[in-house]
Design a protein that fits this description.
Elements: H1 2-7, H2 11-21, H3 32-42, H4 47-56, H5 58-68, E1 77-82, H6 88-97, E2 101-106, H7 113-116, H8 118-131
Parallel strand pairs: 1-2
Amino acid sequence: PTPLALVAGRENIYFNYYWNSFAADGNRSLPESDRLQYIASYSRPGRMASGWSYFASFPKSAVAFAALAHTRLNIPVLTIAGEKSAGTILGDEGKTISADATAIVLKNTGHWIMEERPSETMSAVTTFLEKQN
């Protein structure tokens, strides 16, 4: 309840902090029109609590993932991360779950890969999928 009380009525401050701080360049993260839509949606009653419930489930998910980690995937896996965000960490994790893992690290990119580098992100996905055919 405390985080909800602190953010209520200040959703714009909360989200803009993350959008700007987790980007390689805060001017290239989410466009203003998208920001306004997210803020309007999450400002509605119960929406912020629902959104945060995803993060509250992390401890339970970690237990489930630990059990699943004993079996490697026999499918190709693609990871895409921003150099200034997860960087090589996400790719290293992909290699622990699949013998056929492709890791892409987008230079000068933060957490918001589709917003910061849409062409490069889509090119990586398209190239990966084309190799699967």
